[in-house]
Amino acid sequence: IVSDWDGYQQLCEFGFRSALRVDPSEYGVIATEPSFNTPVARERLTEMLFESFHVPFFFLAKSAVLSSFSMGKSSALVVDAGASGTTVTPVLDGYAVLSAVNRSRLGGDAITEKLYESALRSSSGVDV
């Protein structure tokens, strides 16, 4: 979730103008959002793209739905494990079932830390 919208807008500006070297008012934009995105964040992104970058059209897709489609499935159980948390999203006929989304703060960072602590406690002779 974006917490610094000015910084995000600068990042988009760099992406459009410097990295891609395009005028965003000449191209449509597709963006992804997490299953737990808030309506306020969704509205703010849409407002920024239309009002600041004058994109002609914009589509916001749930990342879990696109993950499901990328595997050729319109229905799936998508597990997104990141550094700071894990999200499980059921996708049914191309739509995220938002009422059934589950989130956990257990992610890669926490698992790495537990493995590190376990290795330190073990007497296996592993040098950490």
The coarse silhouette is extended
Estimated helix fraction: 25-40%
Which consecutive residue ranges, at least 5 long each, have pLDDT under 50?
none
Strand content: 15-25%
- State Rg: 19 Å
Report the order of strands and helices: HEHEHEEEEH
Instruction: State the end-to-end CA separation.
Output: 34 Å
The total of helices stands at 4
Q: Helix/strand-derived class?
A: alpha+beta
Number of strands: 6
Largest sheet, if any? 4 strands, antiparallel
Overall pLDDT score: 93
Describe the structure.
The chain has 128 residues and is α+β, with helices and mostly antiparallel strands. Helix content is 39%, strand content 22%. The strands form two sheets. Strands 3, 4, 5 and 6 form a four-stranded antiparallel sheet that branches. The mean pLDDT is 93.
Could you provide a short overview of the structure?
By secondary structure, the chain is an alpha+beta fold. It is built from four helices and six strands. The chain has helices at residues 5-19, 39-51, 63-70, 108-121, and strands spanning 29-33, 58-62, 76-81, 86-92, 95-96, 102-104.
